[in-house]
Amino acid sequence: MALAVLTASCAGSGPPRDTTTTPPAADAQALVLWRMDETGGTRVLDYGTLRANGIAGLDTRTDFGRFHNARVFTRSMESFVFSRYQPGLDTPTITIEAWVRPFGIPDFEDWTIASRWSVRETEQSWIFGMVGRRIVRNPTMTSPGYHRALAVTGSTGQLVFAFQQEQAAPVRSYFSTQNIEVDRWTHVAVSYDGVTIRFYLDGRLDAQYETPGAIRSSPAPLLVGNFFDAQLLSNFGGDLKVGDRAIHDPVYAFEGMIDELRISRGARSDTTFAR
Predict the structure, then answer these.
(1) Range(s) of the domain holding residue 156
(2) Which pick of 4, 76, 217, 218 has the fewest CB atoms within 10 Å?
(3) What pLDDT is stored for residue 272 in this prediction?
(4) Predicted TM-score of the model (pTM)
(5) Residue 155, by phi and psi: left (phi above 0), alpha (psi -120 to 50) or beta?
């Protein structure tokens, strides 16, 4: 594995795009685009090509975000946005980006920003999150260790992107070099073109890794702001919730705000993020 870290702005053809003032476009590459602009309720509209509308957990809410509104996530098993699997989510190359404003640092392995990942090996494609301290600060909570192998070499506050290859191989995890600031809006992005993984923070290339392969297709749903076995979800009573069926504490639940989540087919060019 070869690692190259770039701290300068990315060069590219055409005028650079300023991600600090421009929300992401609902273009042909955008599979999913959750603007999180709802004023309440549990429905999250998708402006991407898949029209994969999401359902938010009861312990999320809406508030003023980076652009218009955003979704506020809490330390709860009922804090998430969920969309069922559809074949269009499977793509061997990908770009995942969002505006995030974490309210703290994860105590355990990580907080999940977005994932298509399950506790079952047959339902593991990719996971994108924020590395935690991996120490027990809250003795009333216990980690099941689901992400212990994913974030073990990362440093607290870094981004982590892990994926399962199409071919049989161990899970691969990669990290940004810079930490995500607490209580501040940051544009975070990771792209993979089948050869190179690139991390971007606030539109600047942070790190890149050479790792040839393709992301595995799987029947995993899309889950944002949390991690748990999606088969535990039930709409009994009218609202989608995990309820008492959960078997672990919400150690992977993102605490903070997420806005303008976009998942794209293929690796977007550096000019999409550069300022």
Answers:
(1) 17-258+266-272
(2) 4
(3) 66
(4) 0.89
(5) beta
